[in-house]
Amino acid sequence: QVQLVESGGGLVQAGVSLTLSCAASGSIFRPNVMGWYRQAPGKQRELVAAITSVGSTNYADSVKGRFTISRDNAKNTVYLQMNSLKPEDTAVYYCNIRSVAPFNYGMEYWGKGTLVTVSS
After folding, report:
1. Which residues of 6-21 are buried (b: 16+ CB within 10 A; e: fewer)?
2. Can you give the pLDDT at residue 97?
3. What are phi and psi of 9, to 5 degrees?
4. How far is CA 47 from CA 1, 27, 36, 76, 85, in A?
5. Average pLDDT, stretch 31-57?
6. What integer is the mean pLDDT of 4-20?
7. What is the greatest pairwise CA distance in the chain?
């Protein structure tokens, strides 16, 4: 089992920055991909950004240039630096870890989510 605990959400005004953190603990499989997803009210959960164990990243088009994902493998923690926040970034943000090891490829765990609300 892997536990993921997100932190850093809150209510902010448009244009400001916010950093989310997600700490993983338990039987962490490696290599893995850690990512941030979000789900806005009435919408499906979508990928925001993901990062591999060696630091390769990918982003949703809607956040490219504004959000930066990073990770500290020694701390088993992934971060999401969000700049120039917009009201449309309002959502519950979920942390995800997914195995890319052959023996359990695709196994994944989710955090409980942290709410980010951006007011205009």
Report:
1. bebbeebeeeeebebb
2. 97
3. -75, 170
4. 22, 24, 6, 20, 17
5. 97
6. 97
7. 47
Sign of torsion over alpha carbons 65, 21, 24, 2: negative
- At 29, the pLDDT band (50, 70, 90 cuts) reads confident
- Per residue, the 3-state secondary structure of 38-66, as one string, reads EECCCCCCEEEEEEECCCCEEECCCCCCC
Residue 53 has a CB neighbour count (10 Å cut-off) of: 14
- SS3 string, the chain, reads CEEEEEECCEEEECCCCEEEEEEEEECCCCCEEEEEEEECCCCCCEEEEEEECCCCEEECCCCCCCEEEEEECCCCEEEEEECCCCHHHCEEEEEEEEECCHHHCCCEEECCCEEEEEEC
How many angstroms separate the CA atoms of 70 and 82, rounded? 11
**Distance of alpha carbon 4 from alpha carbon 83, whole angstroms:** 23
